[in-house]
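stuck on this one:
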Amino acid sequence: MSFPTDLEIAESATLLHIKKIAEKIGIAEDDLEYYGKYKAKIPLHYIDEEKVKSAKLVLVTAINPTPAGEGKTTVSVGLNDGLNKIGKKSIAVLREPSLGPVFGMKGGAAGGGYAQLIPMIDINLHFTGDFSAIEKANNLLSALIDNNLQNKKFSLNLDPRTITWKRVMDMNDRSLRNIVIGLGGPTNGITREDGFNITPASEVMAIICLSTDFEDLKKRLGNIFVGYTFERKPIFARDLKAENAMAILLRDAIKPNLVQTLEGNPAILHGGPFANIAQGTNSIIATKAGLSLADYVVTEAGFGADLGAEKFLHIKCYYGKIKPDAYVIVATVRALRYHGGATKAEYQVPNLPFLEKGFENLAKHIENAFKLGMHPIVAINRFANDAEEEINFIKAQCEKLNVKAILAEEFTKGGAGMTELAEEVVRSAESMTNNFKPLYQVDDSVENKIETIAREIYGAESVVYSQKAKNQLKTIYELGIDKVPICMAKTQKSLSDDDTKIGRPVDFKITVREFEFASGAGFLIPILGDVMRMPGLPNVPSAEGMHIDKNGKITGLS
């Protein structure tokens, strides 16, 4: 009998009413804002800064992934179940899925196997409408910009050629990267170039995730840079009186969402920035809510540790004034084969020579963790075709690096397959040996911050700037938005900015093609290589394998 699909497992689960999940973590039934029986929003008054300081935060990251991903969400959900199973009061605090990957490459993003969040279909689709609200707030600012260009009586004299703000939508659609708007004559607006980013890469998404309260949200929205006047005066969203209307659209979206795991343990989902083209972590508000309501919080940072974990530590920890107490690196045998040179067909087949060479990628992420003041634990996310010889090799090599590697068997066993990892995470968190130390200070020059990340985290020789990037650097200093963290946008498939350079590349340079400004969110985005902030669909999108019958039953969403 074949192993059931994620969707089959999710649909066979018995869900508890969300008020029962809330009861486990001390949330009053009347305080919940219900979205049906199985999901609800949590009011912000549950955040308690004193409790935040005493609870333990566990960060789950990974090596550079194969296109299918390495299972960070699955491990995070399973680890949360494992911690609860060994008697710890734990909450998983994770990101919301984007419709782009759901219908594009990866399918669903609520965990997998017997380590899932439910209601799975709701989570993967429109959920509680947060992404829609973020999209609307972003595009309201776009409409206000174009209305001001059209409105001569109240014009800010904005130069259309300098506008950096883009529209967004939550779908992979490469045709919208660069467009022309305002065609069809004067009544249809000013003709100008524009473009779309995907919603998870939007600055409004970043602002939701980095705001500490509603007033902070409004302030950050007002600080969004729009462009220049013809007299070279900078224009911000506050000059368009946009921040209050945008915040109104985000009134409910700022509140975290409560759901459950298959095992009936609490999970909070909030925000969904990608880690290759955004900061890749859930919201500060959600994380602090979790830390206020439990003794342990398991959270993840998207893609490999060179992207998600680096940004979690240098951006989220900086603004949230938090730091992890334990640090887990997820690795799979198949990904290590891939980094050793195996083709797609070959990385599904046991092969120790490929694994030995590919281990260099994991070794670099371990080395980086120590540089950042963290003592990592490696979680080997087990697949059916992993050979014992390969698993033993990983454990032995990690031991040589003074790191413990533990099998993670959440996919087939749920929390029961994660108790050993949970025990080790508790030991690490309570040992007080993890003490994050930033690699750069926000007051450093932009160039120094970028080069520090490139050299120390990626292993690059140097950084090259295009002429466009050099010109934009001048603008950054003119605007005074240089004293902020850096949010690198690059491929997730490699430590370099070239996705063909697998393993642990050496003797390479990275190229900053251009910058995007996020003065409201409070970081700068150097765009490396050919990475795009509006992805395209693959040749065979996941959408093509999905079906819905006359009764509304969905298949293929996993």
Q: What stands out?
A: The chain has a mean pLDDT of 95. The first helix runs from residue 6 to 12. The domain at 130-249 is CATH 3.30.1510.10 (Domain 2, N(10)-formyltetrahydrofolate synthetase).
